[in-house]
Structures are given as structure tokens and as C-alpha cells.
Amino acid sequence: MTTFIIWAKAKLSVDKRLIGIYCVVYFLWGLGMNWFGAQMEIAKFTYWWQIITCYILYMVPISLLLRKLPFHMQYAYGLIAMCVLEFLGYALETSYAYPNNLLDQWFNVRNFSLGMALFFAVYFPLGNWAVQKIYDALFVK
Predict the structure, then answer these.
(1) I need a surface site. Which of 25, 49, 98, 130 has the fewest CB within 10 A?
(2) Burial, 116: exposed, middle or buried (Cβ in 10 Å; 0-12, 13-18, 19+)?
(3) Separation in Å, CA 5 to CA 18, 28, 61, 81
(4) Which of 46, 35, 38 lies closest to 89 in space, CA to CA?
(5) Residues with pLDDT less than 70, the chain
(6) What is the pLDDT of residue 1?
(7) 48 Cβ partners below 8 Å, 6+ apart?
């Protein structure tokens, strides 16, 4: 456990500007996805501020922990993180899945959360890639 804490502290100890970019990118991404999910009547957060708790307070630290790993490892670890998030969101009813939504129709209602987790797990490698590109463009000479 101590080794993990040391490792995690090192991974989370980054330039504050990088964290700022993560927060802006992930917040906007969360707003967009929540809007899209509601417009398409797939799923949405029960409360708007869940974008902050999920995308910034949950996903940003996980992204920082995973950011130097290869794409497939970021996706695999991200899948575990998103399975936990999806499970808790629907179990605690803080996320709302529209009845008979598009994903239910395509994949069956029993596969809805799994499909969401499989999709959202790609956020970690894609988010890390996008944030690094923005950071490099703004701050690396």
C-alpha cells in the first residue's frame, strides 16, 4: 500500500497548469456529453453538478495516474474505473437512463451499463492525448 501511495503522489504531482487544462477540457466534455445524452434521450446526470464530481474530481485524477501508460493499458484501467462509476451512478440513482433508449434497443437493457462503461473508458487515453497536445501547444517551447 505504501508503494502505491508513493507512486500515486508522484503521478499526481504535476504542473498546476496541466491540471487546469484537464479540468477545463473534462468539464466541457462532461457538459457536452450530458447535453448529448439528454438530447438523444440515452442517459443524463440527475444533477448538473455531477459533471464536476464525475469528470473533474473522479476522472481527472485517474487520467493523471494513467497518462504515461500505453493506450491499451489506459483503456483497460479506465474500463475498471468506469465500471465502478456506471454501477454506482445507476445503483444510487444519481444517473438516469431513459427507458427504451437507443442503446437499450441496440444492445438490450441488460447491457446498457456495460456499453456505457466500454464507451466512456476511451475517455482516459483520448483525454490524456488531447490535454497533452493542448498543454504542449500552450506551454512547451
Answers:
(1) 49
(2) buried
(3) 21, 30, 13, 18
(4) 46
(5) none
(6) 72
(7) 34
pLDDT score, position 2: 86
Please give the helix or strand (H or E) that residue 88 lies within, else none: helix 71-91
Residue 16 to residue 92: CA distance in whole angstroms: 33
Residues ≥6 apart with Cβ < 8 Å to 122: 75, 78
* pLDDT for the residue numbered 113: 87
The alpha-carbon radius of gyration of the chain (Å, integer) is 16
Q: How many CB atoms lie within 10 A of CB 38?
A: 14
Report the pLDDT value the prediction gives residue 4, as an integer from 0 to 100.
Answer: 86
Amino acid found at 47: Y
pTM for the complete prediction? 0.90
CA distance 141 to 136: 8
Between the alpha carbon of residue 80 and those of residues 72, 74, 134, 140, the distances in Å are 13, 10, 27, 32
